[in-house]
Amino acid sequence: MSKENTLLQTDQVDAAINSNTDIGIFKFEVDSNKVYWNDALKEIHQVQKTYIPHTDNIYGNCKEGTLKENLLKAHTQALLNGVSFELEYEVLTSKGNSRFLSIATHAFKSDAKCTSLHGFITDITHSKVKNIETHLLKKQLAYAEKLANSGSWKWDINLDTLTWSGNFYHILNRNKENPLSFDTFLEYVHEEDKEKIVAKFDLALKTKHFPDSNYRIVLKDGSIKTMKSIGEVITDTHGKVITIMGTCQDITESKVRDHQLKQKNKQLQLTESSTEAGTWQLNTKTGAFKWSENLYKITDFEYGEPMSFEVLYARIHPEDKSHVDEALKCVQKNGIKHTFIHRLITRNGCVRTLEITADLVSNKISNSKELIGTALDITNKVKIEHELIEKNQLLNFTEHLTTMGYWRYKPETNDVFWSDNLFQIFDQPKTDKLSFSSYFNKVHPDDKAFVKEKIDQSITDHQFYDFTHRIIHRNNSIKIIQIIGKVTINENDGSQELLGTCLDITENESREFELTKKNQQLNFAEKLAMIGYWQWDTPTNKVYWSDNLHAIYGHDKSDDLTFETYISYIHDEDRERVVSSLENAMLTGKFPESTYKIQLNDGSVKTIKTVGQIDRNNQGEVLKMSGTCQDITEVKRKELELLQKNDQFNFAEKIANIGSWQWNPKTKEIKWSDNHYRIYEFEIGCSLHIETILSRIHPEDIRVVQELKNQIFIDKKFEKIIFRLKLNNETTKTVEVIGQAITDQEGNIILFKGTSQDITSRVKAEQLIKEKNQLLSFTEEMALMGSWQWNPNTGTSNWSDNLYKIYDIEPGHPIDMDLFLSRVHTDDTNRIKKELETIVKAKTSKTILSFRIVLTNGNIRSIELLAEVIKDRQGNILEMIGTAQDVTDRIRREQDLIEKNQLLNFAEQLSSLGHWKWDIVNDIMEKSANLLKILDFNKNTHLDFKTYLDRVHPDDRDKVISEIEKILDSKNFDKFQHRIIRDNGNIRTIEIIGAVLLNEAGDVVELIGSSQDITEQVEAQQKIIKANKNLEESTIILTSKNEQLAEFNHITSHNLRSPVSNLNALLGLFKNSESESKKVEIFEKFEIVIHHLTETLNTLIETITVKHNAGGIKENLYFEQTLSKTKEILAAEIMNTGAIIKYDFSKIENVLYNPIYLESVFLNLISNSLKYKAPDRAPEILIISNVVNGKTTLEFKDNGLGIDMKNYGDKLFGLNKVFHKHPDARGVGLFLTKAQIVAMNGSISAESEVNVGTTFFITLN
């Protein structure tokens, strides 16, 4: 029955082999030692489909290590006990690729003995790599969260448990706790955002979609962060929400940067719009071109039209294109900012002039160079310059007609320019070099101070103040001149220039001078009051504004003014109201006082208050409107600021839990701020009485408050008081009240005012501080630590009790510097004095002071002192505070550790050993100095797993990764070895042992261990192995020689005994025979026996010759040539038998061998196949070469008579052994063939089946 089951299972496996192309399948027949692989398995091992596996590599070329050992143990158990097994192992394919395989086997048994082993093998390399990648991705996620300042979270709805990643705890500055809940998270959410967040989670539970959002959190230290949250809702199979998970990122800095960027962009847009300028960018690598919106307007392109540099370049004036090319090339080549000018042709053919500023910057994101810059429309500027030239020509003509001249003055360089007519006005020779002194020397002495003041004021205010003064000619005649000018700033170097005209007004000086002074006074008054005068002539629609009104509106005085101009300045929000008011005024004849906003050309907004009057004719028609406008922007701003300050005061009161109050004891009137109502938990604005207020005071404190109130009326002074409130909800608050009594001239109290602060939290904090101080005292005692304060200005010190104990001084004893230094060890006193002086001088302390003290009993203790300097706002030292710790025991331990480390380093150097530590979480490695030396690393090398893996021999890197993965998975460290390659190319073998450190959750956080350079031991071991191998080979050879000798002895004794006995018998018969004819017959028998004896002796001699000449001539022989020669020798037999000889020498074509022996092997085996052919079929012979385990093999296969291996297998290669009746059969060919092969350290075996054929397997070397 079991045999039938086994056959059935075998059939199923065979069917699987034929049908499954993805799974590798193998069979191993134990009795016949046959191994079979299907094509899929051969593909896995990357061998050809013709490849024939053998018993040495049933499972392929397994990599050395624990996995291979486990596989071999399982295989042995399967063969011995019939135990099936499943496991994973690693192989190296024929192409050198490393693959991880999973195997599942089944052992077939018969009579409790394993007869065959079948198995299924799958390639799991991909999943293994994925596992490694998953592990690395987890680490990378942790690093990414850290870099991105983000954290992940998961909320289990059913359990209401919240899981945070480590970095989420870091962001919230919270220690890890277990468990967490949704309410824990809400504690951190900003009060103003809590409702939004709760609503978001409620929406996610309803819609099963988690919306992205931004919200704020408040940390325990009061700092506020802005978080960005994204998430996902997880549901079960019934659609019920079971989990919400996601990530949160701290975008506080990003928000700040975005806000700053928006501000900068807004400022840039305002600047562009006010200066007719725009910005642009050109990526020199990609050609990408960007520009600001204002450039569409400047360059006359349709807004939103796709732009490129080529499109813009086509608009550049043809005469300027080469100039533009050279300028841009210069910027790209030198990387220096450059400004140039070119013209542009608009769509309607107009020409505009642009001033371009270009610079070269590096784009760190795309790793490319970009040209950036600005474009400024200077068309009007150029036009003005041309007009200025023309006007200068007209001015020169005008100067000659009038007593006027033109001048320029640069204060910084004292450069002065006068027009020709000005030389004549000032009676100055044109040949003289001009300077400010040339002008000032002509000024009347009485006017010099006035003139200097005006010019200095103009230079200081960057605004020219027109003035009139007297000058004296060389003939002492006096002229009166009027100076009109303006101040300009050079955009390139920022220098000032004063320029203007000078008019000789001597004849009408009196009238004009008075008029000028009054105008100046009026203008000055207008400027001081921010007032301007206006007039509107309605019939002609002409408008007049005073100079200051032009300045208020930012309107150029040279531009025309109309009613529409005035209306255009009014803000959009107020324009309709103002126009309606004016229309109504024209109907009624009454001008209403009004306030409205105006918007200047630069976008700024002002608030204007206007009053006026209307003049009408007899028919009621309006002839004229006139009045004044006052700029009250600053007044409005201050009013708004006052409102904001009040709001801020209320907000500050709320934050500080402070409320303000007033009480008039005569009128009983009480005034409270809103927050004062909140502190007492009264409804804001409700009516208050003293009795009502006193009802809220805690019963135990009411008497003290009443006594203080009575004392205030007596002393008329308000002392600070602290008392408790007992509110309606039974809660208790502690308040601190500070006030002031206001008296009249007679000293009667007319008002009390002051503030109340809710100090409940402060009182609790003070109580907590007391508790903390108790804990601190306990901690100081445990840590052998004490705290201190020292005022270097007064020399006084305060010590904690434990510090007195450390210094062996009675607690409370006054401490000064002398007492402190008296306890310092004499060898350390001077150093400590200098270090303290340095701290006081530098007003900062950055180091720990270490010194020794000597106690009363003579014991010496080591102290470490840490100091912090407290300074006032001016940077003066107020005091120094700090701690002092008795580190005597620690220093002793450190000294012991140093000594042990020295011993360890010495031991490591002696044994080529080094210790190491690897922080798995942060991928940080620490290695001892000797280990760095062994690994050939510089001591400054940043060590992580990648750096270490780069040092590992390429062939061993997969092994190292596999070992680390196994350690991390199993949490157990098994010793392993690998090779490294040093910088000089030397290869060393390292053996690593270690241990695994786990955190509280049981996760691996750190590996520690030691690494030893065992190169010499490995080399010595390899030498021993090589010596053992040589010894084994010598033993094999010697055994073979002994076997050959024994065989030779057997042959000699067996094959020679019979002929010699026959000769002795024949000799006896010959001597005893009397008949001559009988003697002749006997003599003939002699010849036959002697012939056989000679033949046997010749064979034995040839065998000995073969064994002696085995190490003789060796040549590089090609199998095809040897076969061809054999076929020529056996040509007649091949033709007579019709034999077909095929061969496949593709695996290996040649071999280094004795030519006579190889020809003999081919000749004997092929001639045997022809000699012992089957009578019913033509001989078919197949010869195949191969390489197995580095050795060349031959396979001779025929379809002849075959041999009964069961009866004759052990006699196959014996001398004179014949198994078929053939006239030429002598039993010598196979004997000599084996002798020749063995003599060359080879082997020969055979498989045969009667009437099927025979196959000979030969290993040549």
Briefly say what this structure is.
Residues 1051-1261 form the Histidine kinase domain. This protein is of the alpha+beta class.
Q: CATH homologous superfamily name of the largest domain?
A: Histidine kinase-like ATPase, C-terminal domain
So what's the overall shape? elongated
| Number of individual domains | 9
Number of helices: 38
Beta fraction of the residues?
Answer: 25-35%
Q: What composes the largest sheet?
A: 5 strands, antiparallel
CATH architecture of the largest domain: 2-Layer Sandwich
Arithmetic mean of pLDDT: 80
Query: Helix share of residues?
Result: 40-55%
Structural class: alpha+beta
User: What is the CATH topology classification name of the largest domain?
Assistant: Heat Shock Protein 90
Question: Oligomeric state of the chains?
Answer: single chain
In total, the number of strands is: 47
Organism: Maribacter spongiicola
Domain Histidine kinase: 1051-1261
Domain PAC: 211-263, 338-390, 465-517, 592-644, 716-771, 847-899, 974-1026
Domain PAS: 264-335, 543-589
